[in-house]
């Protein structure tokens, strides 16, 4: 993963619990300073170790840390040099999700070793969304769920995860209810 991911973990820990806790995470992960060059690739094992040690330091399950950092990622990325891409990625949740692959392709032009996940979004007959996800990395499903929640907050749209199905080691599908819908699945305009 690129250093930007590790910097997001760092920023998350420092904002929530302070630099002393981040120092403990780094010590347990076996690294000196815990600052990373955003556009430099790092071994995935380092990022996973930082996530695991963050969970230990916060005394919460790893899935909770992944979900919280996924939600945090949206704000973090919006403040980064890639913020303009997020701004132009869409004006609402569904549009943004549908544009994620194109956004990742543009980022990959600057970060050639990027191995981004892919997303396929399609409407279900009941008005909900089906989101299929595929990644070379395993175990990040809670991060993706956090991403959904972070995007929901970013776009001020309610999003509810109605279903989840793991299809393979790095593949899953979610059913999402986006916005307020009536019993027939029709979007109810915000008041």
Account of the 3D structure:
50% of the residues lie in helices and 16% in strands. The protein is built from seven helices and four strands. It is globular. Helix 1 packs across helix 2. Strand 1 (118-123) and strand 2 form a beta hairpin. It is α+β, with helices and mostly antiparallel strands and 191 residues long. The mean pLDDT is 90. The protein has two domains: 3-60, no CATH class; 78-178, H-NOX domain. Strands 1-2-4-3 form a four-stranded antiparallel β-sheet, covered by helices on one side.
List keywords for this structure.
2 domains; 4 strands; 50% helix; H-NOX domain; four-stranded antiparallel sheet; globular; 191 residues; alpha+beta
Could you name the ranges where pLDDT drops below 50 across 5 or more consecutive residues? none
How would you state the average pLDDT, rounded?
90
State the helix count. Answer: 7
Largest sheet: 4 strands, antiparallel
Helix content: 40-55%
Q: Give the overall shape, derived from the CA principal axes.
A: globular
CATH homologous superfamily assignment of the largest domain:
H-NOX domain
How many beta-strand elements? 4
Multimeric state of these chains? single chain
- The total tally of domains equals 2
Order of helices and strands: HHHHHHEEHEE
CATH architecture of the largest domain: Alpha-Beta Complex
CATH topology of the largest domain: H-NOX domain
Question: How big is the Rg?
Answer: 17 Å
- Separation of termini? 41 Å
What is the structural class? alpha+beta
- Per DSSP, what share of the residues sits in E-state strands of 2 or more residues? 15-25%
CATH class of the largest domain: Alpha Beta
Strand order of the main beta sheet, please?
1-2-4-3
